[in-house]
Amino acid sequence: MTDSSGYTLPCIQTHPGIAVGDDDPSRELLFGRYFAADNRINTWRMTGFIQSNWTLDDDGKFVLNSGLRAHYWTFNNEFTVSPRFILSYTPQWKHQWVFRLKAGSYYQPAFYREMRRPDGTLNKHIKSQHSYQVALSGDYSFKIWNRPFKLSMEAYYKYLTNLISYTIDNVKIIYSGENDAKGYATGLDVKLSGEFIRGLESWVSFSLMRTAEDLLHDYYYDANGHYIEPGYIPRPTDQRFAINIFFQDHVPFYTPLRVHLNFVFSSGLPYGAPNAQRYQQTLRMPWYRRVDVGFSYMFLEQSRDRMKHKSGFLRAIKNAGLYLEVFNILGINNTSSYIWITDINNVQTAVPNYLTPRLINLKLAVEW
What global pTM score does this model have? Predict the structure, then answer.
């Protein structure tokens, strides 16, 4: 039921089974859109995989990891085979480098909500979403101030077929229930990690990504009557860039007491009105920004305390600590989604839903 400022807009029909009021129209409960369905599924799956490693030379510089994964599902009688491999190359240089070439074919069988159409019926002919992927990565291990550091980089490209498109209404994901799109995803990930403070790992990471999809058979006519095919549009997960910095330190002369800072900055995700066509849902949310601070007290550490306990309960504990964290300490309003309000003139306005402005978390963590 759509209501705004005390007015109820005229709707199309009454939901079956809901009692309509008396002769007063204001007593009627009307819905513009609804679905009702009774779905029952009884299926079984058969999966399996085989994998092996091969050293391709005597020096061990080239190592090939490859395998096959198979899947069969009685719901749609689909049988898939996914080959993939990782070729690693370790050159004998002064500094330690490892390069990897990864490629493969990947299938993702639909789960229940993906195969359910918006009207509530199930698509019994749904196919697994499929991708061809290739990635080139490199890891560089080195030392600064006689401490270990690592630089990781990866560039990737994924071609996506048999996609099941979806839209986001407020915080609800609505799947089309059809293999109605193709797409791609490409990007670059870079991460530098290491012990800026001895014994504590910190890192900085940077990511670039672009992912888009082309809905099959979608079109519209412009104001001049021209036939237009929208082509590729951003997917709902199209986050163009993200930066993350995590830094740890400890109190001088008392290493069990520590503090960490976490910085997150990224671009906004696409969105659009819930009843708009998919090609129109290309607006952008504001940038995401967050600063976290945390304090921890490691009252038991494997590297420091385990040998002190020769027997008993504490011998089995690797690490234990008490953590106090303040997420989003600056109280920044980050948009998670929009709720669309319709006024009496049937004009829709997007009102942002914000994530929790500030969150305090206290936890005890024990690792066995």
Answer: 0.82
